[in-house]
Amino acid sequence: MPEFDLVIRGGTAATAVDVFRTDIGVRDGRVVALADGLSSGRHEIDARDLLVLPGGVDAHCHLDQPTGDESVMADDFESGTRSAACGGTTTLMPFAAQMKGQSLREAVADYHRRAEGKAVLDYAFHLIVSDPTPQVLGQELPALIRDGYTSFKIYMTYDALKLNDRQILDVLALARRERALVMIHAENADCIGWLTEKLERSGDIAPRFHATARPQVAEREATHRAIALAELVDTPILIVHVSGREAIEQIRWARSRGLRVYAETCPQYLFLTADDLAAPGFHGAKCVCSPPPRDRASQAAVWDGLRDGLFQVFSSDHAPFRYDDPKGKKVPKAAASFACIPNGIPGLETRLPLLFSAGVNDGRIDLCQFVALAATNAAKMYGLYPRKGSIAIGADADLAIWDPNREITIANDLLHHNVDYTPYEGARVRGWPVTTLSRGEVVWADGAFSAAPGRGRFLRCDHPQSVRGPGERQA
Ligand code: DUC
Ligand code: ZN
Ligand code: ZN
Q: Less Cβ around it within 10 Å: N or C end of the chain?
């Protein structure tokens, strides 16, 4: 009788702190042995010349999220988790979004219904708090935090979602009391609204004007204000999807003052620029997301921040809208203004290969930094560690086995999402996950996906653990 259900033999494993040669023994979906020369397993995977990494944790993505208008997200929990698995990710954290006037509990119940029976990977929920009423702050949120929803996103822009400063202070104070983590979308709503009206009045309605209407100064101001509000309340925050140089400067300034300001960035801010929104015809709409991609100097600043620890988390912000679709980027009203183009780009499956190739293989970050950004830090910050985000005895056997030299030219035909384009069409990458395991089960191997919808489990999150970047003072 073999001792293990599975042995991964002869690979080079990496965590956020170490790289080491080891066999990995898996039983009942967990890692139970790390050693050379393990005895046999019922199944064996030969990982010689391959890297064995923690499966990615994509801590910011949108799946089957109601939009409140005629647009519809293209990926549900089935296609989204499938696509993520094929790109080496094993845990997803999408958002249960409260519409104004809606109970947060009802939003969470609705989102569970959307996930159940569909997800092929394990998932946890962040909340989106758009209506922090006394009932929500006094009862619903504290109870939800106790039930394992310990992080929530708030918006400083988008009419349907944005909070004013006083509401933000209320939410931050609640997070401090209940030990939750607030993620902040930092863009100044009035600057964007004012610029948008001006552009529309001049007839500047093409997709590229989306970037003009959302300049770095609007993100910089909101980032600074979010930091100030968090300082007032004395609670940590995480600024999501930081796009460029000016917001980064604000976060560096906050860190230099010893403030616990964490930061996330995404592939679009490394691999796209505002010029991509100026593609011929309406094609620029494919790259419309908020904040928008910036310029080369910002790309370099984002790489610097990944290298030196400014950023803790690297997420996709996958927000899937089909291009050639009246419920996608071509909703009828989008012809009248860039401001009506659904915001977001797909990226679940390409997130890690892009970072691995341009980061690790091109020498910008090392393998341990890659693991920290791809998985470990998010697992810690959102209360899923050590079950997720590492390779350790007792952890879930959520693993991605990478061929660091596999060369792929990204093409939408290769991907497994339900979107009809990728903004990275034609990009050449070196390094791709050849096998993905979720709780010891092979879900992606040798170019084939194999996992039953509904096998993914909901994860309750613990309170956030702090993560420190190099140079950050102890809080
Ligand atoms: N911006 C967001 O804030 N959310 C989803 C997609 C986007 O572009
Ligand atoms: Zn956002
Ligand atoms: Zn988002």
A: N
Tell how far the Cα of 135 is from the centroid of ligand 3, in angstroms.
26
Reported pTM: 0.97
For 275, which DSSP code? Answer: G
What is the distance between the terminal CA atoms of the chain, rounded to a whole angstrom?
51
Q: What percent of the chain has pLDDT over 90?
A: 97
Give the number of domains in the chain.
Answer: 1
The alpha carbon of 282 and the centre of ligand 2 are apart by a number of angstroms equal to 23
Check which CATH number belongs to the domain holding 60 and give it.
Answer: 3.20.20.140
**CA–CA distance, 445 with 58 (Å, rounded to integer):** 20
| Domain housing 80 | 55-369
Q: Which atom of ligand 1 is nearest to the CA of 185?
A: 3
Burial of 470 (0-12, 13-18, 19+ CB in 10 A): exposed
Which pLDDT score is estimated for 1? Answer: 85
pLDDT class for 348, splitting at 50, 70, 90? very high
Is 100 a domain residue? yes
Pairwise CA distance, residues 43 & 25, whole Å: 10
Nearest to 61 by CA among 240, 216, 211, 209: 240
CA of 396 to the centre of ligand 2 (A): 30
Q: In this structure, what token pair is assigned to residue 133?
A: 């009423």
Determine the Cα–Cα distance for residues 401 and 326; give it in Å rounded to an integer: 39
Ranges assigned E (strand) in 271-334? 313-314
Would you tell me how many other CB atoms lie within 10 Å of the CB of residue 394? 9
Ligand 1 in reach of 344 Cβ (< 6 A): yes
Q: What is the mean pLDDT of residues 240-250?
A: 98
Q: Hey, whose CA ends up nearest to atom 6 of ligand 1?
A: 344
Cβ 317 under 6 angstroms from ligand 1: yes
Question: Facing residues of 237 across strands?
Answer: 182, 261
Q: What is the pLDDT of residue 467?
A: 78
Question: Domain for residue 385, yes or no?
Answer: no
* CA–CA gap between residue 84 and residue 69 (Å, rounded): 26
Alpha carbon 103 to its chain's center: 25
Q: How far is CA 138 from the centre of its chain?
A: 29
- Residue closest to 314 by CA, chosen among 1, 58, 19: 58
Smallest CA-to-CA distance from 127 within 101, 158, 96, 157 is with 96
pLDDT at 469: 53
Whether 413 is covered by a domain: the verdict is: no
Q: Report phi then psi at 391, rounded to 5.
A: -115, 110
